[in-house]
Write a structure and sequence with these properties.
Helix 3 (57-80) runs antiparallel to helix 4. The chain is mostly helical and 175 residues long. The protein has one domain (8-159). It contains six helices and no strands.
Length: 175
Amino acid sequence: MAGVRAFLLPALSVLFAALGVFDLSAPGVAVNEWALFGGLAGLSILEIVLDKIRAIERVFNWIMVPIRAASGALLFGLASGVAADAVPWLVAGGIVAGVVAVLKVLLRPPARDASSGVSTSFLSLIEDAVALVGGILALFVPLLPVLLVAFLLFFYARIRKRRGRKFGGLRILGD
């Protein structure tokens, strides 16, 4: 889920930790969870707003790929516990979130191709919903959000195929 929205899942994790649902505290680290949640929530809102601006959304999403990969690595590392054996989990989290972020950028139709009836703002809203619902589900049922991300990527591929078919020649020639 961190490959879709970089700051939303960490914000949800810190929120649930502040509410006492989870314990994310590391030994020797004192962090005000509410202040951290406020900062992450602000960054999350900024990311959501910037993703809806047509002129910069493509470049913005490419810039966010390494940040989303780092967010996934951090979340995998926290889930495995802060220890010496967390390094493979950090690498795995970075790879998974990075692949999802790159696929999101590659499969998401460009803003200039809003002709199939699906605007990029609507797609961004779908991403927000998938990230929020998937983020909450990920904290309680860890593998279920994989289905949501797969649905989102399939949705993008389907829209891209539909747009290509609309302007790529006669429909009678096939897909």
